[in-house]
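REVIEWER CHECKLIST
Item 1: Sequence provided? yes
Item 2: Single chain? yes
Item 3: Sequence as submitted:
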Amino acid sequence: SLRDANEKLFALRFPEVCPPARVSRRIRELLVFQEEMGGEMIVKPLDGAGGEGIFHLKPGDRNTSAILEAATGHESRYIMAQRYLPEIRQGDKRVILVEGEALGAVLRVPAEGESRANFHVGGRAAATEVDDRDREIAAAVGPELVRLGIVFAGIDVIGGWLTEVNVTSPTGLREIADLGGPRLEVDVLDAVERRRNAG
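Item 4: Structure as written out by the authors:
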């Protein structure tokens, strides 16, 4: 299951709830995508975590080609480019799914001047609720996670768009509980136990 659900690529299976994205190692192709997105995009490695290797590229930045050369290893490594979502300034919502159902969420708010909201790079946790759009995204993604046997996942939602599906070690449970939300670890363990008992 973990092999089949790459945290960056898996979201692309659901284009109806994802922002425009391109996976490539070709700098020219990535620059064309940046132009199509109005000059602003996010690039990220396909195997990164904790915000590592994520760059916010802006129009007219003279370092864009150098950043893309480094990110792609001089066109030897595939990366993902996504349309920049300015709503990141309000936060990146981590929605916890258990057996494909959205049970809780925490908002990760970026530090001042930062484009990444990950806790590892200074993002702070803020209370939030699962809303109708989150449930709509969960309804699209959840059945495929269940089919793959993934009991516990975290989806990242920015401005109502799915940006990643985290299955390896999704953070957020502690922060949700600390902010007065439900103790979702109980739901996770109950779901694992039900699966085990079902054989």
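Item 5: Key structural point noted by reviewer: The beta strands are 21-24, 41-45, 55-57, 79-83, 92-98, 101-109, 124-127, 152-158, 161-166.
Item 6: Recommendation: ____
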